[in-house]
Amino acid sequence: MYRRYPDKTMRQVVVYLQPTESAMIRQNHFTLERTRHEFDAVCLWEQPAENFLQYPGLLPFALGQNADAEATLRQVAQRVNQISDPIMQANLAAASAILAGIRLEQDIIYRLLRRDIMQESVIYRSIQQEAEARGEARKQREIATNLLRDGVSIEVIARSTGLSIEAVQQLQQQNSSSLQG
């Protein structure tokens, strides 16, 4: 970065999202062999929301200190809705929703942040795809387990579910262990 932007001032920052008693939050350097990195440590719960509400890219962090997280999320949602770039708007809405989940319940987040905008975010879609893949894998394992109980051969189960033979064998071992235990 320095070579590309020699006139720009750079600062490294570590952001702590949740309160902790760890002494590491006051640490401002990291040394390993012949490298030393100095950075600022920012504890979100110590920062006033106004610091983050001023800049669109910082909106997701606004929920840090504020006692009324719902009111702050309402402000964030209003500011996100004012952003004209739909991609930036979607990404900031999704990031705000993710970080809001640390302090607020899902129904409050979805009520205040427009879900249709968040769904345009590549991050939101990625999380959704990962969840769908986990659900599909769980479903495949359940089907394989049921087929094993019915005495279907491992090879047929692997072909039918798309699981590897090794994965089906592992399920078989787990099932026999749970039946014995």
Features:
about 180 residues; mainly alpha; 3 domains; two-stranded parallel ribbon; two-stranded antiparallel sheet; about 10% strand; extended
Describe the structure.
- The protein is built from eight helices and four strands, in the order ββββαααααααα.
- The strands form two sheets. Strands 1-4 form a two-stranded parallel ribbon. The chain has a two-stranded antiparallel ribbon with strand order 2-3.
- It has helices at 50-53, 69-81, 86-100, 106-112, 115-118, 122-149, 154-161, 165-180, and strands spanning 13-16, 29-32, 35-38, 40-43.
- It folds into three domains: 1-46, no CATH class; 48-120, no CATH class; 133-180.
- It is extended and about 65 Å long.
What is this structure's SSE topology?
Layout (H helix, E strand, L loop, with lengths): L12 E4 L12 E4 L2 E4 L1 E4 L6 H4 L15 H13 L4 H15 L5 H7 L2 H4 L3 H28 L4 H8 L3 H16 L1
Parallel strand pairs: 1-4
Antiparallel strand pairs: 2-3
Helix pairs in contact: 2-3, 6-7, 6-8, 7-8
Low-pLDDT windows of residues: none
Which strand order do you get reading across the main beta sheet? Answer: 1-4
Count of DSSP H/I helices: 8
**N- to C-terminal distance:** 58 Å
**What is the overall silhouette?**
extended
